[in-house]
Structure formats: structure tokens, C-alpha cells
Amino acid sequence: MGYDIERFVGYVNEGLLCSICRDVLEDPLQAPCEHAFCTACIHGWLVHHSNCPEDRQVIDVSLLRPLYRYMKNDLNRLQLHCRNREHGCEMVCSLESIDRHERECEYSQIPCSNAGCTVQIERRNLDGHLAVCEYRSRECPNGCGYTILSAEDTQHNCVAELRTELELLRSEMICRVEEAKHEMESRLDSQRRHMVQKESILQNEIEELKSQMSRVMSDVRSLMAAERQHRQELEQAELEKREL
């Protein structure tokens, strides 16, 4: 559907009206026959028809194109009243900027931001409504620190709420202690395996050193025996030399 023509100030060219809803074009598309339509209108029309509603020429969705630039410019320059005019808004602006204005208009009806509240209120009155809304939240006046809804005042029990919070904290603490315990046990197991591996490596190195030491001692003994043999041979040679 297009923009209600009654909202516009001054004359609106016939070529800027939707050929289906007869209101001012909204998000316009143009057929090859140059008739223009609101996007929603022509798409709805083509669900049940395959021709232009003006001249009955055959058209298809794939043949629809954006409005000519000069027509688009003429459309954007049209002046119209805000849709909240009946609520008191006196703003008149171009069609090009109307959406931006209406998104921020102080007279727009918006929902209350409090969960559970179904009231629709003008944006300019929202702060006043929030101050008295029965679904507004506030801190408990008894000092327990909880945020409560005004609608729940009669059901709020500080002791029960604090006891529930305490139980939750205790459960959370137990979970954290268990997690820390499991993590520490995992680390200890990892360190224990590392120490066992290290001990095994050191034991092998010790055994290798013992083996090397045994071979060295055997070599030393062999050298000492050879030295004694050599000394005896020298002494025998010296005796024979003296006899000669």
C-alpha cells in the first residue's frame, strides 16, 4: 500500500500515484509500459494476474524496474504531514525524510521497555510512564540488594532471597573447588609421570656409567699387568747384560 494521499500538502501529479491502490507510490517499481506501482501492490497483483492492471499488457516480476530518476526526484520532493498528526505532531517534511522523522517522532506510539508491560505510550511520555509503571524494577528498600519489580513487592522475601543466593553461591563454590581439585590432581599425575620417566632415564645413564667404569677398570688392570711384565723383562735383560 502507498502513502495516503490525504497526508500530502498541495497537488500530487497523477503519475506519482500507484495504479493499483491509487495512493502515492511507496517503494515504487515501473513496468515496461511505464505504469508505476508500489512494490507490495504489484507483487500482490502478479500473484493472481500476469498483466498490467492499467493497460492489460503482459508483464512479469522480472520485467519490473526502479522508477525513472526524474520521477523518483519528484516523488522525494513531495511534502507530507507526519502520520502522528492526529496525536499532535505538526511536522511537515519531504517524502525522502519522512521515515527518518517518524522513527524519532515524539508523538510515535512505542511499547514500554519494562518486561511484562503491554502499554503503548507516546515517546515523549515514556519517561513519565516508566516512573510509575507497575512493571518497573528497583532495588529492595529493606537493604538486601535485590532488584525487584513493583508488581512483586508483596511476594518479595529478603531472607528467602538471600538464602537462595547463599545456596547458589555454595553450589558454585563446591563446583569450583572440585574443578580446582581435578586440575591439581591432573597436574600432579602429569608431574609424577614425568618424574618416573626422568628416573628411568637417570637409572639407565647410571647403569651405562657403571658399565663404562667397569671397562675402564678392566683396561687399567690390563695396563698394570702389562707394565709389571715389561718391568720384569727389563730387569731380566739388565741381569743378562751384567753377566755378559
Provide the fold topology.
Blueprint: E1 28-30, E2 36-38, H1 39-48, E3 65-66, H2 69-77, E4 79-81, E5 92-94, H3 95-104, E6 109-111, E7 120-122, H4 126-132, E8 137-139, E9 147-149, H5 158-243
Antiparallel strand pairs: 1-2, 1-3, 4-5, 6-7, 8-9
Describe this structure in words.
- Residues 192-243 form a coiled coil.
- GO terms for molecular function: ligase activity; zinc ion binding.
- A zinc finger (TRAF-type) spans 101-144.
- By secondary structure, this protein is mainly α.
- Among the domains are: 5-104, 2-Layer Sandwich (Herpes Virus-1), CATH 3.30.40.10; 109-148, no CATH class.
- 50% of the residues lie in helices and 11% in strands.
- The protein is built from five helices and nine strands.
- A three-stranded antiparallel beta sheet has the order 2-1-3. Strands 4-5 form a two-stranded antiparallel ribbon. The protein has a two-stranded antiparallel sheet with strand order 6-7.
- Strand 6 and strand 7 form a beta hairpin.
- The model has no long low-confidence stretch (mean pLDDT 87).
Summarize the structure.
The chain is mainly alpha-helical and 244 residues long. The protein has five helices and nine strands. One of its GO terms (biological process) is regulation of canonical NF-kappaB signal transduction.
- Biggest sheet: strand arrangement: 2-1-3
Per CATH, the class of one domain reads Alpha Beta
User: How much helix is in the residues?
Assistant: 40-55%
Number of E-state strands = 9
Query: pLDDT below 50 for ≥5 consecutive residues: which ranges?
Result: none
Question: End-to-end span in angstroms?
Answer: 145 Å
Q: What is the CATH topology of one domain?
A: Herpes Virus-1
Mean of residue pLDDT? 87
CATH superfamily of one domain: Zinc/RING finger domain, C3HC4 (zinc finger)
Class by alpha and beta content: mainly alpha
Number of helices in the DSSP assignment: 5
Radius of gyration, taken over Cα atoms and rounded to an integer in Å = 49 Å
Overall geometry comes to: elongated
Largest sheet: 3 strands, antiparallel
User: Element order, helices and strands?
Assistant: EEHEHEEHEEHEEH
Portion in strands:
5-15%
Assigned CATH architecture of one domain? 2-Layer Sandwich
Keywords: Coiled coil, Ligase, Metal-binding, Zinc, Zinc-finger
Pfam family, one: zf-C3HC4_2
InterPro entries: Znf_RING, Znf_RING/FYVE/PHD, Znf_RING_CS, Znf_TRAF
GO molecular function: ligase activity; zinc ion binding
